[in-house]
Specification:
Coagulation Factor XIII, Chain A, domain 1, about 35% helix, disordered N terminus, five-stranded mixed β-sheet, Immunoglobulin-like, alpha+beta, 4 domains
């Protein structure tokens, strides 16, 4: 395949990709992973085995703004293979990166000349291409902004690069996309925490190019901020204020007591203050969440009889103080825990994602956890009921002292917490404690698995196999005896190619029967027999015709 054909195929594939790509463009770009690329280049510069790796490492680190030392010039001269044109190319390109590194032209002249002569058409194509690009350099690059955003999004989401060659060209791509002479994609990313609350009321947004460099002053506007749960708009057309002198960080005052807790999506639009070929200025989204502090109220521990015969003992608690009383509950009773969760900012009772009541045996440290469920309604009261008769199996009937802890957690809480309700609650079960066999079996040695193959069946005596072998050969023996008794009529055997082919084909059919008995299956035998039958039929028909002609001649 010629180079011209390869270029045509490449352009066709790119065109197909452009048409087949989805119309929805991911406008949220990610900052280039420059630190990862820099570490990859620096690690490769410490140990390299070929001049290509050295070339990509030196060139890549220079693209990131670090000038490599000239000491690598000696390494270039040692690694270059003067008989390999690709090695010569990497050596010369690596030497260009260094400030003062000169290679002897005479060492490579003969190889370069022979390569140009052998690939004259390819060299001419590339040579003319340089001139065509130079002639059109004054014109702007004609590329659809959506397609450029797709390429930028593809490059910026590539977190790991396998080879130094790919890392070098990826760095070059970032540099081209960050050049203000060309169309430049804008990267908008959140640099502050995603959590917004009274202590952290603002959202900080970074506005840079793919290299993380400033792009000049921008007017950043929060078109809207919608709650993901119901789509309620809490912010509309609010401008962000610059926080850095180079206009790379902007601040949005987001928190307000009127904004309820929840997950929000902020839609941003950018307007440049200076002239520039910027793309990707709209449809940027930032995800944040508004969190709050909560407190527990109306907390009660109730101890009641199972049959409600006696009066219920009620203990009221105040968060975060534990109950100092020693509680005793036997198998005739049940424990009921009730509480409500209130948002400190709004003074409203709320529901959270996780509420658990945990019993911990103070002797064995075994935990038993129950889920607290909220009632329907505005007050959202949580309730946990533990019956010491019904739930005795959960505790394995282990009586003794337990620690009682309430656990509250939610993604929209500033801090999840656990509250020790009581440090010494005595539980008494009716039956004796049951050993936790399931727990012990996790660490005890398992029974050894011994695999036993099926024992061989007893074979019949040797005399039986010999008798059946004799019966198998009996028809052949009868045939031979009959021939001996009647006599062989070899004089009537016709001579020629047809009789010889008939006997060979006939013998092949018998041999095929033997192979079927020993090695082949029925379908394989049928295929081979179909091939053998053709010459057997033709030669047999010819032999019978010869014998019939002889009989007519004698008559």
């Amino acid at each position: 395949m010629t180079s011209r054909s390869l270029m045509i195929i490449t352009f066709v594939l790119l065109s197909i990709y452009s048409w087949c790509a989805t119309s929805v463009v991911a406008t949220n770009l990610y900052p280039a992973n420059l630190d990862g690329l820099k570490n990859q280049f620096q690690t490769a510069m410490k140990s390299f085995s070929d001049v290509a790796s050295l070339h990509y490492s030196l060139a890549g680190i220079k693209e990131l703004g670090v000038q490599p030392p000239d000491t690598f010039c000696n390494d270039i001269k040692k690694l270059v293979d003067k008989s390999n044109i690709e090695s010569i190319y990497h050596a010369t390109e690596a030497a260009k990166v260094l400030t003062n590194c000169k290679l002897s032209v005479d060492d490579y002249r003969s190889k370069i000349t022979s390569t140009i002569q052998s690939y004259k058409s390819t060299t001419t194509l590339v040579f003319n291409a340089f001139y065509e690009v130079a002639e059109k350099a004054g014109a702007s690059i004609k590329i659809d902004p959506k397609q450029l955003i797709k390429f930028a999004n593809y490059f910026s989401t590539k977190r790991h690069v396998a080879t130094l060659r790919s890392a070098y060209y990826l760095t070059k791509a970032f540099k081209h996309l960050s050049d203000n002479k060309n169309s430049m994609p804008i990267v908008v990313s959140r640099v502050s925490s995603s959590e917004v609350n009274q202590q952290n009321p603002s959202v900080l947004v970074s506005v840079t190019n793919l290299f993380g460099q400033p792009v000049g002053e921008m007017t950043v506007t929060a078109d809207s901020a919608k709650r993901n749960e119901d789509g309620v708009v809490v912010i509309s057309k609010q401008k962000l204020t610059p926080k850095a002198s180079d206009f790379t960080v902007y601040e949005l005052s987001f928190y307000d007591k009127k904004i309820p807790r929840g997950f929000y999506t902020i839609h941003l639009t950018l307007t440049p203050r200076t002239d520039g070929k910027f793309i990707g200025l709209t449809d940027h989204t930032i995800d944040v969440k508004v969190t709050s502090e909560v407190t527990l109220e109306n907390v009660e521990l109730n101890i009641a009889d199972r049959d409600n015969a006696a009066q219920v003992k009620t203990y009221k608690l105040t968060y975060p103080n534990p109950l100092s009383n020693n509680l005793e509950i036997d198998y005739h009773q049940k424990l009921i825990v009730k509480f409500q969760i209130k948002d400190k900012q709004t003074d409203e009772f709320i529901r959270v994602q996780q509420t658990f009541l945990r019993f911990t045996n103070k002797q064995s440290n075994k935990e038993v956890i129950y889920l607290a469920e909220a009632t329907n309604g505005v007050n959202s009261q949580y309730k946990v009921e533990v019956d010491l008769t019904i739930n005795a199996n959960d505790f394995h009937h282990q009586s003794g002292a337990y620690e009682l802890v309430l656990i509250v957690g939610d993604a929209l809480l500033q801090k999840s917490f656990s509250w020790k309700l009581n440090d010494n609650i005595q539980l008494s079960f009716h039956e004796d404690s049951v050993p936790d066999t399931d727990h012990l079996s996790l660490y005890s040695a398992k029974r050894e698995i011994i695999h036993q193959f099926r024992e061989e069946e007893k074979r019949p005596p040797t005399i039986v196999s010999l008798v059946f072998s004799g019966l198998t050969l009996l028809p052949l023996l009868i045939l031979l005896i009959s021939w001996l008794k009647l006599g062989f009529n070899l004089s009537g055997l016709p001579l020629g190619l047809s009789p010889l082919g008939f006997h060979i084909s006939h013998g092949a059919a018998f041999a095929l029967m033997y192979f079927y008995w020993k090695y082949l299956d029925m379908f394989q035998t049928m295929r081979y027999l179909a091939l053998v039958s053709i010459p057997l039929f033709l030669f047999g028909h010819r032999v019978l015709a010869i014998l019939a002609a002889r009989r007519e001649k004698k008559a």
